[in-house]
Amino acid sequence: MPKQTLEVLPQSFTIHSLDGDSDIPAEVLKSPLFFLGKTQDELSIVVPDSVSIDSLESDENWKALELIGPLHLSMVGIMAQIGAVLAKAKVSIFVVSTFETDFFLVKENKLNDAQKALVKAGYSVRGMVS
Q: Can you list the domains of the chain with their CATH numbers?
């Protein structure tokens, strides 16, 4: 029986960095999928590549593997286990979470390696790209 199931989202993503006192760009709020992280020093935004943002720095060409949920907040070790599988395969990750699930972002050029490693470790991956 497979472990959890992950699904490769069809769009590619960009991770943006803005000043901590920046407003959230209106284009972000219009996007059907986005993630925000804010500290005193930085506002980080993850959006599909199709959303254009004027940022200090950006890193493009990320693909998202959505951990199919919902997952209960009391579940322990899922992110660590998947992270360990991907680390062993030498795949860097950028993780974002919602109340119900996690998204593992990997660079597009490492997506195939990530998928193979996850399947080998007993995970199911939907929407696999070759």
A: 5-126 (3.30.2130.10)
